[in-house]
Amino acid sequence: MSEPLLSLRTHIEEIEKLGELRHVRGAHWDLELGAIAEVSYGMAHPPAVLFDEITGYRAGLRVLTGSTGSAARLARTLRLGTRPDGAPLDDEGVVDALRAKPSQWAARARDFPALPVGDAPLLANERTGDDVDLLAFPVPRWHSHDGGRFVGTGCFVVTSDPETGTHNGGCYRMEVQDEGRSTTIAAVPGKHGAQNIAAWLAKEGRAPVAVSFGHDPLLLVLGGTEVPRGVSELEYAGAVAGERVPVVTMPDTGLPVPAGAEIAVEGWLTADDLRDEGPFGEWTGYYSGRRRPCLNLRITRLYHRDDPILLGAPPGKPPHDYSYMRTVMKSAMIHDELVSMGVAGVTKAWAHESGGGRLFVAVSISQRHPGHARQVAHLAAQCPAAAYMNRYVVVVDDDIDVADLDQVIWAMSTRSDPARDIEVMRQGWGSKLDPMLPEGETAYNSRAIIDATIPWERREDFPRVAQSDPAELAAVRRRWAAALV
């Protein structure tokens, strides 16, 4: 049987060809695997890592990390192609190739309905009832203060709208419970998956859920991105890939999971079935909260391939497993949304990795009129792609590369007056993951907008920047490159 579309194994083969995969054998599932992954994220050229022969488990039961952590791997994931000379895209190339793509994919999604299939490698092994055991697989304890072993980091959690039947796929943290027979699902409040679960609980008293734990990281990307309400991530993935995604319909819940999945479970959430969950090292770089009750998925059925591979995507202090991916995706989406609003003069947006791709956004503009920078800042702070957990928006002139944090800080330091150029917006869309949110308080946040552009009225007499002409610098680099190596 050939590999189905969105197979994790196909992705692994492709990144091996790119020379970006490293094999690690003999690491322990308890902390060591997570620490090795963390070291890899901080490397100058972070590789993907495939763990095998994990302590306590037989060879062949593997875990992949770093699946989207470079321009080449993310370009492969998003089917963005290569440079004209066939070389992999670089950071700028990926963002440029992404421009306008998210809105195009969303518009075309319904042309790619999921394709139910009756056979898939996923169906090779089936477990039901008390035979279900998630700990038969090498589920890591990623961080030293995590409350347990988290199988759901690179997962794809499928729910449905009980009124429309539209499926949603989200990526939420999932801690193994009951010695492997169940797992909590910490769906983020306000996200579409959490809304679907709440609607099912209100209507039927239980919510059906299916989860994939190993698949093409395209589903990891889409599960953590603001796909428009009413658009299925599986259909959206079809639009990205250019063909319908084959799915297996789970027999108990009727929910679809990708046929290319390595492991899939299904079951039910009920309001009275809770387990203590957390803490967990999150994408903000902090452990989130204390151990607390969370909805628990009572698993009725588990399928898995022979020798299945878990897709791991542990967050943490940036850079982490998917911080690069989120930065690139958010940067392109924010830029596109500003342009789609009709805002003139926007040249680039960048959602910085040090802010987890959400907390710190910089936008460059070619100033067109007084107040232009403030207009862009306010819109960027609340546009759909940036509204969740945004904290700082900085607007700079178009001579500043917003992807270069040193240049952004230089502009802030020399072109803004704190008393005049910083405004604070209150009661924005926050999160319980926010380390600044006191325990028990409503998840609002405030956000600062910083106008670090040259004041409109001083454009003619503002001091000249002390640097060579860019064209002259480019010529010098070409002429003297060998001497400077």
Give structural notes.
It comes from Pseudonocardia benzenivorans. Keywords: Lyase. Its EC number is 4.1.1.-. This protein is an alpha+beta fold and 485 residues long. The protein folds into two domains: 8-311, Roll (Pnp Oxidase, Chain A); 323-458, 3-Layer(aba) Sandwich (UbiD C-terminal domain-like). It contains 13 helices and 22 strands. The strands form four sheets. Strands 5, 6, 7, 8, 9, 10, 11, 14, 15 and 16 form a ten-stranded antiparallel sheet that branches. The chain has a five-stranded mixed sheet with strand order 18-19-20-22-21. Strand 12 (246-249) and strand 13 form a beta hairpin. Helix 4 crosses helix 9. The longest helix is centred in the last third of the chain and has 18 residues, at 323-340. The mean pLDDT is 95.
Unreliably modeled segments: none
Number of helices: 13
| Strand composition percent | 15-25%
Q: What's the CATH H-level homologous superfamily of the largest domain?
A: Electron Transport, Fmn-binding Protein, Chain A
- What is the number of strand segments? 22
CATH overall fold name of the largest domain: Pnp Oxidase, Chain A
Distance between the termini: 51 Å
Question: Based on the structure given, which CATH architecture of the largest domain is correct?
Answer: Roll
**Overall mean confidence score, pLDDT:** 95
Helicity range of the residues?
A: 25-40%
InterPro entries: UbiD, UbiD-like_C, UbiD-like_N, UbiD_Rift_dom
EC number: 4.1.1.-
Protein name: UbiD family decarboxylase
Domain 3-octaprenyl-4-hydroxybenzoate carboxy-lyase-like C-terminal: 324-452
